[in-house]
Q: What sequence folds into this?
């Protein structure tokens, strides 16, 4: 488990890597959610327009 | 297929996912190489391994801003709607990675400089970059009219580009705590290959990640902006 100790710098190295991973994942989730939401909205609008005509 | 057709195709779904997976591979190798393969630094020990997340995120903060400013300028000058959409899609990505660059740098600085924060030229100009991103996003969300929001925020983005060379050269212009560049220089990099390769892999991986994120966000942005276009039906039900 010497690897996890990072030569005494564990308290600095792991949070730095952890934060980076979290922000990468959040960015992917945000982008996908944004696309899903705008597709949903566009689809709803198409249905509404179809009912009017 | 001409070059132009090929290049345009890169922006469509199968290629976007290819960018994403390629970026995941490069980042995975970079993390493994940075944490395991690279030897500890002779002065900084294992603490230097923060470079493998700090340098790529700092690179992202500048590259994304430059992309955003160029897109904004194109939108302003030639009035191309999709350029404004691209600029708007850059901001949240850039802001989040600028924050990571600041925090990882601060964690690194605590042990190497003895402080989390110092009002140093590099650190201060990078903080201003974060405020530029936040100001850009705030300005956009404060305006209801999309065209006015596009133009006003584009001016801010273009003016803010002066900060990018300031950040890059701050370490050579002033006496900064921050070290001078060891990779991004014209001469040969001053770090050995076992340390350099994972770093280059991370830099390329993050760049591709940005491409993938930007293209996904751009699709969402276009769907909202072109809400009344006749091709929307085809785009939703291929």
A:
């Amino acid at each position: 488990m010497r690897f996890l100790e990072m030569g005494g710098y564990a308290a600095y190295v792991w949070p730095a890597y952890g934060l980076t991973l979290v922000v990468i994942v959040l960015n992917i989730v945000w982008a996908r959610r944004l696309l899903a939401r705008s597709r949903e909205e566009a689809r709803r609008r198409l249905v509404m327009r179809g009912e009017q005509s | 297929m001409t070059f132009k057709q090929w290049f345009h195709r890169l922006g469509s779904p199968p290629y976007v996912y290819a960018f994403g997976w390629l970026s995941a591979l490069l980042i995975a190798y970079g993390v493994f190489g940075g944490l395991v393969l690279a030897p500890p630094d002779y002065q900084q020990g294992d603490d230097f391994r923060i470079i493998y997340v700090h340098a790529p995120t700092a690179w992202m903060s500048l590259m994304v801003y430059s992309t955003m400013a160029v897109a904004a300028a194109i939108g302003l000058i030639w009035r191309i709607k999709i350029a404004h959409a691209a600029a708007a899609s850059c901001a949240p990505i850039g802001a989040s990675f600028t924050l990571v660059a600041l925090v990882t740098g601060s964690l690194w600085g605590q042990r190497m400089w003895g402080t989390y924060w110092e009002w140093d030229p590099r650190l201060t100009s990078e903080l201003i970059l974060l405020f530029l991103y936040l100001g850009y996003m705030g300005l956009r969300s404060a305006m209801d009219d999309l065209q006015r929001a596009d133009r006003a925020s584009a001016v801010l983005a273009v003016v803010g580009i002066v900060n990018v060379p300031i950040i890059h050269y701050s370490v050579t212009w002033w006496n900064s705590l921050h070290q001078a560049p060891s990779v991004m220089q014209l001469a040969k990099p001053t770090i050995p290959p076992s340390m350099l390769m994972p770093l280059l892999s991370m830099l390329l991986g993050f760049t591709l990640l940005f491409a993938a994120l930007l293209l996904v966000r751009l699709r969402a942005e276009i769907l909202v902006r072109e809400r009344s276009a006749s091709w929307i039906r085809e785009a939703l039900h291929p």
Remarks:
- Chain A touches chain B at residues 3, 6-9, 12-13, 15-17, 19-20, 23-24, 26-28, 30-32, 34-35, 37-39, 41-43, 45-46 (CB under 8 Å).
- DSSP finds two helices and no strands in chain A.
- The longest helix of chain A spans residues 10-52.
